[in-house]
Amino acid sequence: MTAPFPDRLAPGQPYPLGASADGLGVNFAVFSAHATRVDLCIFDASGRKEIARLPLPECTDEVWHGYLPDAGAGLVYGYRVHGPYDPKRGHRFNPHKLVLDPYAKQLTGPLRWSDALFGYRMNHPREDLAMDRRDSAPAMPKAIVVEDAFNWGGSTRPRTPWESTFIYEAHVKGATMRREEIRPDLRGSFAALSNRHFIDHLVKIGVTAIELLPVHAFLQDRFLVERDLRNYWGYSTLSFFAPEPGYFSSNTINELRAAVRRLHAAGIEVILDVVYNHTCEGNHMGPTLSWRGLDNASYYRLVPGDERHYMDFTGCGNSVNLTHPRVLQMVTDSLRYWATAFQVDGFRFDLGVSLGREHDNFDPNSGFFDVIRQDPLLSQLKMISEPWDLGPDGYQVGNHPPGFAEWNDKFRDGVRKFWRGEEGHRGELAARLAGSGEVFNRRHRRPWSSVNFLAAHDGFTLQDVVSYNDKHNEANREENRDGHSANASNNWGVEGETDDAAILETRGRVKRSLLATLFFSYGTPMLLAGDEFGNSQGGNNNAYCQDNEISWLDWEAAASDAGQEQQDFVAQLTRLRREHPSLRATRYEDPNRQVGEGMNALAWFDFDAQPMDDARWNDHQGRLLVLRRAVNSEEGVLDVTAVLINGWHEALDFTLPPPGVGQRWRILLDTAQPRDLAARDSGPTLSVQARSVVLVHAVAGGAEET
């Protein structure tokens, strides 16, 4: 930009929203239905000094816009918005507060906590009704105008079919902070995701998609800063378009694009965990940083008749108002931006039920779902919902529309309870192995709709599931009151770390049986990063504020003998799942459908090879189960496998069910013998060790040999 600045902006255009450089200048457009004036504030390159303030000269269809000639990428800016300060009517305009462009694509400068960031006078008897007139600009990050140019070369999306997908949930920083092969200045950054050692690890264990915890710019909440803690997970969005500045090792947002390109080259898709249900501005006593100062009554859902307060379906103080067309536009524009400018392959929606609420109730045909399902780009990407929120009827697992997968916590809870030894969970386990059809088999949905997981970022790691009976969240400085107390875990005799060989052997076997259950179940398997080698958080099941070695992956554990053994075991599981179509369904089948002579698509047996009947299913003590599945592969070859499950505390002999005419069984995997990776023949009976899973496969050999 050449000095001096013009006295006024040219009218510009109301579309596209945000700051758009065209080579000759920059067009600015921002939505506000209730503002009376919007000022563009331009800052020097450091973001510290405001050097120009120019009103946006036009407002078209509630979009304020103006054009600044001779400006371009690198310009630092923010807005001041005029209008009524009347919280009781839902309006919180305060031109003394600099606010971020909701479409800002890059941020500069940290947020410095100050009372000036609040639109009201802190500690005033009238609370948020008393307007504050201090300038917030010195404490605010600013937006930077960007040009989204990147050489993608011949990069293409992997487009892995859903039924072949294996998701790895990881944190950008925590995944690589303790990885010694990566340069210290790159660890914990987007650049580290490009490192060949990290990518080779993902390829080795069979990952097809990495799901990254929030990468949108997020707030370091004041209450955490005051406790000398940090917002580690990132579920406190400050910008829906700008990447988190703390994840860059350089000053270019192309660092993230390069990571996506390298992951794609390795055949790994990139899925982003996104938070559109609430923002970092909190409840009516929160700061004014962006949307609140631009048009509080439009961007947020307010309590009818009490517009001073927010409807809170999220537990975070506010709920984004996706029933407003301009707000819905902002969210879908954000999704399209990440899908095009960064070539990401899908999204996981935090508290997805909130996004589908029309009025107060969840509606699978809401505007949010409709706009995504009809979008020619977004409808072709992987869409995953966290199918609950804290509002009325907030638990909606299985009730999302076709085209969406959902996190299935029924899988996590039911499988954990079975393997920790609870009674009465054999039928529950069977339902999860079969893809939770009683939950998802409707509206022509497929088994991949169930995203199966044993652990996720929120809760115990897999190692901690077998090491702790109770949560240990003291480091969060909330007197261990936070986090769930019902973890369906079992420490097998000692709380936490131990040198007891018998306990360690039991824990290892149970972990492997849990993992085998995950990969041998219909649905989409998702693994928490580090669970492939025994990563622990020391019993902390709510490490949202632990930006330290509690949360960072322990790659020393990965290098240990036990860690290497578990990685090899996971790699074997993913290989078997790839090789055997009977372990991954493309659609829900009629269990009684004949796929071969005397061979049903799916059949359940007890340990004595007798079919399961009502009496056996209703046996509360039953912890033994055999699942035989048969499917014709794409090549027309019949693939038959059987999963033998012993949830009992001692070894038992299983009689194997018929493998098919002219077939015999071969053992492919035994969770009690993790080092024995070679297939071997089985006789008509097979000893299955306590708390173990055995996978057998039918091969040619003659019925008389079984």
Description:
- The protein is of the alpha+beta class and 706 residues long.
- Among the domains are: 18-144, Immunoglobulin-like, CATH 2.60.40.10; 588-705, Sandwich (Immunoglobulin-like).
- It contains 15 helices and 33 strands.
- Strands 12-13-14-17-20-21-22-23 form an 8-stranded parallel barrel. Strands 26-27-28-33-30-31 form a 6-stranded antiparallel β-sheet, with helices on one face. Strands 4-3-7-11-10 form a 5-stranded antiparallel β-sheet, with no helix packed on it.
- A hairpin with a 5-residue loop joins strand 27 (624-632) and strand 28 (638-646).
- The radius of gyration is 28 Å and the shape is elongated.
- The termini are far apart.
Helix/strand layout:
Layout: E1 18-21, E2 25-31, E3 37-43, E4 50-55, E5 58-60, E6 63-69, E7 76-82, E8 85-86, E9 91-92, E10 107-108, E11 142-144, E12 167-170, H1 196-204, E13 209-212, H2 222-226, H3 254-265, E14 269-274, H4 291-299, E15 302-303, E16 306-310, H5 325-341, E17 346-349, H6 352-355, E18 357-358, E19 361-362, H7 367-374, E20 382-385, E21 404-408, H8 409-419, H9 426-433, H10 437-440, E22 450-453, H11 462-465, H12 501-519, E23 524-528, H13 555-559, H14 561-579, E24 594-596, E25 599-600, E26 602-605, H15 614-617, E27 624-632, E28 638-646, E29 652-655, E30 663-670, E31 680-681, E32 685-688, E33 692-700
Parallel strand pairs: 12-13, 12-23, 13-14, 14-17, 17-20, 20-21, 21-22, 22-23
Antiparallel strand pairs: 1-2, 2-6, 3-4, 3-7, 5-6, 7-11, 8-9, 10-11, 15-16, 18-19, 24-25, 26-27, 27-28, 28-33, 29-32, 30-31, 30-33
Helix pairs in contact: 8-9, 12-14
